[in-house]
Amino acid sequence: MYASSLSVLSWSSSSSSSSRFIQDSFRQYPMLRRSLALAFIASCNCYSPLLLTRELTSRSRATSGGVHLRLFARQDPSSWKPSRRDAMGWMTAGVASALLQGYATPADAVISDFAKLRELEDLQAEIFEQSVPSVCFISTEYTSMAQQLNLDSNSLPKGVGSGFVWDDKGHIVTNFHVINKVDSAVVVLTKTDGTTEKYKAKLTGVDPDKDIAVLKIDAPASLLRKLPVGDSSKIKVGQFSFAIGNPFGQDHTLTSGIISGKNREITAPTGRKIKGVIQTDAAINPGNSGGPLLNSQGQLIGINTASLGAGVSAGVGFAVPIDLAVPTIEQLIEFGQVQRAILGISYLERVPTASESERSGIPRIEKGIVVLEVPPNSPAAAAGMIAVKRSKDPKSKPELGDVIVGIDQYEIKDPLDLSAVLAKYKPGNKVSVKVLRGPEQTPQTLALTLGAFQGSAFTKLENERG
Questions:
Q1: Looking at the predicted structure, is the pLDDT value of residue 355 above 60?
Q2: Active site includes 289?
Q3: Among 90, 271, 316, 402, fewest CB within 10 Å belongs to which?
């Protein structure tokens, strides 16, 4: 049978109630039939790829209620002996055929499923080919860091990141952490014919709180192909997602997966939280940062930013949703900075625990925001806000200054409230800030004119505006 003979195996169904139930199920759910047929073929390919060819043929229900399964052995040497792998293949065939009893699986249904698979492959290939000219390779250098460490600049590895074309004026979007503290950055564009062009990047602006940066290159508009922007608010868990970038320096690598989760939270380089983040299992590795996350239509739905894992993808990647990023990108291009209203203070990111309060000496409060610093010339300083007072005596505990508990009609219980409330205003707006002052927690109201966020990248990149 294994050497050169032809074997025809047939399992016929009985009229038992269980078999009839299976028949009814297969008639009602065609996808079940197709899935089992594909599973059978996959199992045979897995266990006996060199031995078997398959043919599933339908038989008339009038003559037989079973599946006619033909397994053709190839002309192998008579000395050939079946292995455990081959035996497993036959066992799988038996199980699959028993499950399929009572229904004749049409060969054309299997062919149709493989045709759909080819269509999916073609779709993925088309998404990649259409997107390649829009995805950038970003190489960065840290010359000043080498000088500080008294090292040869060539001894420090170059940084690698990704980005994508935003408009035909040469603006490139990437992550803030890709260009933070760098001395120079080179953006590499890939033409439709596969050749590349390199351009020195200038800095347009950054928003560290959202881990977003915009660069500028002087490239001809004919080479600048922007990605179509999708609607990240409409994504659903389970939908396909595609990441394109330069992981570990491997330029234009495509990885695919699904949307694994929504409304996740990650930490920005500033320590602030980025909310509403997309989770995907498309592999995101070092070098993917700043690259695009695409949907099945090739539309931009997110900026690949981070992943869980010790330096390699663990199947849990995160992308800043494009709906969240667009206002920031547009403001950076127009103004060079985000138009985010600020008080101009530093404050505790959360209410300290009892033990933290004991160690630091800062009194524990039930709600509100403890003002730690009020820089000179800040909006808060102009309004007369008071920070925590620290004594020169190391044994003395700090004295509480102002605790912010409200802005206009809005209550401020914690830093999340402050961020949400300030998002309702623009720089230059006048507000009334309610504080509890000093150890006695005396209520005060301060008239304050909101300032504008000034993003700093700690970089020596030339600024687009000079």
A1: yes
A2: yes
A3: 271
Residues 177, 232, 260, 307: which is the catalytic one?
177
177 catalytic? Reply is yes
Question: Could you say which of 207, 209, 211, 281 is catalytic?
Answer: 211
Answer whether residue 73 shows pLDDT above 50.
no
Quickly list DSSP for 187-254. EEEE-TTS-EEEEE-EEEEEEGGGTEEEEE----GGG--PPPB--GGG--TT-EEEEEE-GGG-SSEE
Over residues 247-292, the pLDDT tens digits come to 988 989 999 999 999 999 998 988 788 989 999 999 999 999 999 9
Tell me the backbone φ, ψ of residue 312, rounded to 5 degrees.
-135, 160
Residue (of 385, 347, 342) closest to 369 by Cα position:
347
C-alpha distances in angstroms, 112 versus 108, 116, 377? Answer: 6, 6, 71
Reported in sequence order, the residue ranges of 268-312 that DSSP labels E, i.e. its strands, are: 273-280, 292-294, 300-307
Domains and CATH numbers, the chain: 6-105 (no CATH), 131-335 (2.40.10.120), 344-449 (2.30.42.10)
Task: Name beta bridge partners: 445.
Answer: 434
> pLDDT at position 291, please?
96
Can you tell me the distance from the alpha carbon of 229 to that of 425, in angstroms, rounded to the nearest whole number? 27
Smallest CA-to-CA distance from 174 within 335, 330, 304 is with 304
Of 156, 161, 151, the C-alpha closest to 141 is 156
